[in-house]
Write a structure and sequence with these properties.
mainly alpha; about 85% helix; single chain; about 100 residues
């Protein structure tokens, strides 16, 4: 190869092609590594977000169950108060009539 000789001033076509192939492979490798690295970071970020969404959904389900239980207790309390009110009204009506 004339590139390695000090006396040679010009580069041959074959060695120019080899140099282009080597430079292209290095640049392609760097770009491929960079794309892979960015995709890996994005994938890790998406996995973390999906995990947090699953945790929030579980927490949301727990809160909804607690609210449903509270609603049931509240409904039972209202029914008991309504029943007491009805009984007091009937007792007061009996006392008023006597």
């Amino acid at each position: 190869m004339p590139e390695f000789s000090k006396a040679c001033v010009d580069m041959s076509n074959a060695s120019s092609a080899y140099l282009g192939i080597v430079a292209g492979a290095i640049i392609g490798g760097i770009v491929s590594w960079w794309v892979y690295n960015r995709q890996k970071k994005t994938s890790n970020s998406q996995d973390y977000i999906l995990h947090r969404i699953e945790e929030l959904e579980e927490s949301h389900d727990v809160i909804l169950k607690k609210l449903a239980n509270f609603d049931d207790v509240h409904e039972a309390s209202i029914n008991a108060i309504s029943e007491l009110n009805r009984k007091l009204d009937s007792l007061l009506d009996k006392n008023d009539k006597s």
